[in-house]
Predict the 3D structure of the following.
Amino acid sequence: MHLNIFLLIILVVSFSSSAKTWRLCHEDKQYPPYITSEAQSSASSGLLVDILERAASKSNIELYFTALPWKRCKQAVKDGTYDGLFAMIKTPKRTKQFAFPTNQKDYLNTADYVILYKRDSILHKAELAGKLFTDKGEFNIAYYKKIKQFGLQAPAGYVLEQYIKQHNIAANTDYDLNLGIHQVAIGRLDGYLVEKRIGLAQVKALKQQDFVISSQGVIRKTHWYLPFNLDFYLQNKTEVTRFWQHIQKAREYVLKND
């Protein structure tokens, strides 16, 4: 009996010690309910962290989280300082820089990007009149350019920042989410593009919900992924692929119980 218990303990210790540690990076901003953390801290929390940790437990992987400015985070993963990063939209350019899952179902979360604008502003009135978005649900850039006052803004380094700059509708000054919401509230910014749940949570935290609201139309509906450093992926292809597969089930479980 004692021998069996001893062997069981040895087996558990051996299994635990065999778990690999992966270093993941995410942006050092507070984006509840998806991610909250202090900079340079491994004590990250939020829905995305819950999904990743559940997937990791099924994969015998231990995760170490680090929060950095988004541009530094991306560069650190490219350099191999960290193994992967989240949450990232998949683009043709990024697939050359990072390893993404090939199965479209292995994503972290579905994201709806909207415009935060001031209540009764020109954007609000334009949407109520059915002019801000087309019949197909697309943002009416041509119409917005006619009514543009201060321009739009989005978080630095994000795909949507590139989008508004490509279409020449960006504000002259860059703002993070908190300052962007403030500028919208005082009428110094036409709108701020952000994921809907994150944006509305921050509007509420700043007590601006009476002044700043979300567009009903969606600028972009997409998925967030956890991509990896290209070399890391090639060296751990089987483990990473299995981890991505576990993300799908972990996502369904966590969001169902949210």
Summary: The chain has two domains: 20-104+225-256, 110-221. The longest strand covers residues 109-118. The two ends are 43 Å apart (CA to CA).
